[in-house]
Design a protein that fits this description.
Keywords: DNA-binding
Strand content: 25-35%
CATH superfamily of the largest domain: Jelly Rolls
Order of helices and strands: HEEHHHEEEEEEEEE
Protein name: AraC-type arabinose-binding/dimerisation domain-containing protein
Shape: globular
GO molecular function: DNA binding
Radius of gyration: 19 Å
GO biological process, one term: regulation of DNA-templated transcription
Strand order of the largest sheet: 4-3-5-11-6-9
Distance between the termini: 36 Å
CATH class of the largest domain: Mainly Beta
InterPro entries: AraC-bd (IPR003313), RmlC-like_jellyroll (IPR014710), RmlC_Cupin_sf (IPR011051)
Helix content: 10-25%
């Protein structure tokens, strides 16, 4: 079966807005990836090197690690996991709110994530004042705008600028699912727990 790992980072905080655990930096290094102090990831397997004025991101020491809470497993399952088939059921008649202030996974990271399937939204034209990212998981979606249309496939990423009038609908029969990410005015930062 097709698998996908995605990271959605709030605002303009591309790798620099995330604090990496020491074991993540070590595992990344085993795959040729180096995180610079500047928050940029360099891939040594394709010949990328740290610039001469950039050092590797230092590992957190024991004292720094103590500042991060250890979340009990029962809280991880309850507060930080959204399962695909649960989302499919919740999205039957309206978008399932996955990440957001009043979503399944409560957080305010500078964006909100919704899960869509057939019937979640009408095929009407709409626009938003925020950036919108569309990421299909299964099936194919028709994305239309004034002057064009495109089919979005699993693994595609479509960036929709603020103010663009567009529509979105499944372009096939059968199972379809898609993440819709919309920027908010919240600042990116540590996980918000309300």
């Amino acid at each position: 079966d097709y698998g996908m790992i995605m990271a959605v980072l709030g605002g303009d905080d591309a790798g620099g807005g995330v604090t990496w655990a020491p074991q993540v930096i070590e595992e990344a290094a085993a795959h040729g990836l180096v995180l610079g102090e500047n928050g940029v990831i360099y891939d040594s397997k394709i010949g990328e090197k740290l610039p001469h004025n950039v050092s590797p991101m230092p590992l957190l020491n024991e004292e720094q690690l103590k500042a991060f809470p250890e979340v009990p497993v029962e809280n991880v399952i309850r507060d930080y996991v959204a399962r695909y088939w649960d989302l499919m059921a919740l999205a039957t008649h309206k978008p399932a709110r996955v990440i957001g202030e009043s979503a399944l996974l409560k957080d305010k990271p500078g964006f909100e994530v919704e899960f869509l399937t057939r019937g979640s939204i009408p095929s009407d034209v709409y626009s938003t004042d925020h950036h919108e990212i569309l990421m299909p998981l299964r099936g194919h979606w028709k994305f239309s705008w004034n002057g064009g249309a495109s089919v979005l496939n699993p693994g595609d990423t479509c960036a929709v600028p603020p103010g663009l009038e567009h529509s979105l609908e499944p372009s096939m029969t059968g199972e379809v699912s898609l993440y819709r990410i919309c920027s908010t005015d919240d600042a990116a930062g540590a996980t918000w727990v309300g």
